[in-house]
Amino acid sequence: MSVKDDIPAIFLSQVSPRGLEAIQKTKDFVNDYCIPADEIYFQQISEDPATRWKKIPPIMETLKAKARELGLWNMFLSKHYKEGPQYTNLEYGLMARYLGRAHTAPEATNTAAPDTGNMELLAKYGSPYHKQRYLQPLLDGKIRSAFLMTEKGTSSSNALNISTGAKKNANGNYVLDGVKWFASGAGDPRCAVWLVMCKTDDDKKNPYKNHTVLVIDAKKALASGKAKLIRPLHVIGFDDAPHGHCEISFHNYEVPSDEMPNVVLAGVGRGFELIQSRLGPGRIHHCMRAIGTGEMALLIVAHRANHRMIFGKPMKDREGFLTKFGQSRIDINRCLLLVLNAAHKIDISNAKAAQKEIAMAKIETPRTISDILDWGIQVFGAEGVSQDTPLARMYALNRTLRIADGPDEAHLAQLARNEAKKFPEVDIFFDKVAAQRTKL
């Protein structure tokens, strides 16, 4: 089926012929290569603790080579970046919808988090050194990266609460102290660079200038013994090897003198600005893939319903099942429209101008898809929570999106506060209605 049939009519005219071709290629690549490769990928992950975090499943390089051959590479870098293929956020959103159907698809096309956000930061704010040393290898898929922001024991979704310190010593070098955790991607043996959110000042009058993003050579830091990868944290029982979500500690880690001239990204005190820049499009990327996850779940559920007999009648013919399936389709389409609208708003303005649209998509999409995945698990019964279907893993990954890049509550509260600022306009509206009524 042509992807034209999958694109909401209101957005179809906004997709270029080149974009449409790439969307179709993405759909075909995911269906023909990535979905069949997922089971092979998980089989190739070592069960031996000694090698589990040291080897990458070989199937991934096969997929990456095929993706590059098809020109499906770094599609997330929108028209705002000269380093990318120049698709719009809307066009990439429609591609990511298919990428979310397979676990292997994002990395296969070099569009996996957290590398996407890190590449955007390095492309937008990086010095020539940063671009040559880290951005180009990331663009080529030769290394991986991690973003170290979250901290234990504090509400670190608010960056102002981050306390990992970076202070200059007598030699003029930054010295890092603190603990980061849930550093996604830090377990990967190819992870070569950390972007670390640190507190570099304590200005009470201007707290938004107290934090800085440092670009740290991960291999060098770990080799020093003063930075330690403590453990991979589990996400609802999954360790996500060899990617991982890691706890990392810094204990008097002194950035080497030869790294110091290039350790600060963009400038001291610009950390808050940088993470806001990074998280805007990133939130939409997650939602785009979540749409695909939900659609894949419906395919799995439909396949189950075709072959499951309930008291002598196929599940697919049960009215209760069909009603829930139909509602799930409506729910996914609702989220799809929210996400694509936010992506288009970024295209025609910027992420800041699309703050409301991004927030609505970020709140609604993960929780809606989580409900659909939960129902899918229920349809399968005990098998649904086991390793014999992908639903449990899909649920675990999607459930974290309601926390990652800011929890539902934070986005909803901010959205509500901004909407409440418009309340005085309501009185003006009804005053005008009353005045106009007297004239009729």
From TrEMBL:
Residues 146-251 form the Acyl-CoA oxidase/dehydrogenase middle domain. It comes from the Eukaryota. SUPFAM superfamilies: Acyl-CoA dehydrogenase C-terminal domain-like, Acyl-CoA dehydrogenase NM domain-like. Residues 269-418 form the Acyl-CoA dehydrogenase/oxidase C-terminal domain. GO terms for biological process: fatty acid beta-oxidation using acyl-CoA dehydrogenase. PANTHER family: ACYL-COA DEHYDROGENASE FAMILY MEMBER 11, MEDIUM-CHAIN SPECIFIC ACYL-COA DEHYDROGENASE, MITOCHONDRIAL-RELATED. Homodimer. This is Acyl-CoA dehydrogenase family member 11. It comes from Candida viswanathii.
